[in-house]
Amino acid sequence: MGILASLKKVFPLMEPWEKGYESMLDIITNGGGHSPSEAGKEKQEDPGSTGCEYSDNILLPALRLHHRFLDQE
């Protein structure tokens, strides 16, 4: 989400691909994914907001609630 927030500053019309994130969101809300420590990502910080409505209102709250992550690669 930090990358999205940075890109949004350069490309203001950029938006996340909601359809692509839906399945990832389902995995996280059902207990899948990993903790930050399991992937060596303890230092990744919450961007607070990305400037994208979907990310700020759907994705980031889910990540905060479940404390789980899913790599996009």
Task: Please write out the topology.
Blueprint lengths: L1 H9 L7 H12 L23 H14 L7
Helix pairs in contact: 2-3
Label this structure with key terms.
0% strand, 73 residues, globular, mainly alpha, 3 helices
Count of helical regions: 3
What is Rg?
Answer: 12 Å
Roughly how many Å apart are the termini? 14 Å
Query: How would the global form be characterised?
Result: globular
The count of β-strands is 0
Which spans of ≥5 residues are poorly predicted at pLDDT below 50?
A: none
Structural class: mainly alpha
Beta-strand level of the residues, as a percent range?
A: under 5%
Average pLDDT rating: 89
Number of domains: 1
Considering DSSP H and I runs of 4 or more, what fraction of the residues is helical? 40-55%
* Major sheet description: none
What is the H-and-E element order?
HHH
Summary?
With 73 residues, this protein is mostly helical. Helices cover 48% and strands 0% of the residues. The protein has one domain.
Please describe what this structure looks like:
This protein has 73 residues and is mainly alpha-helical. It has one domain. Helix content is 48%, strand content 0%. It has 3 helices and no strands.
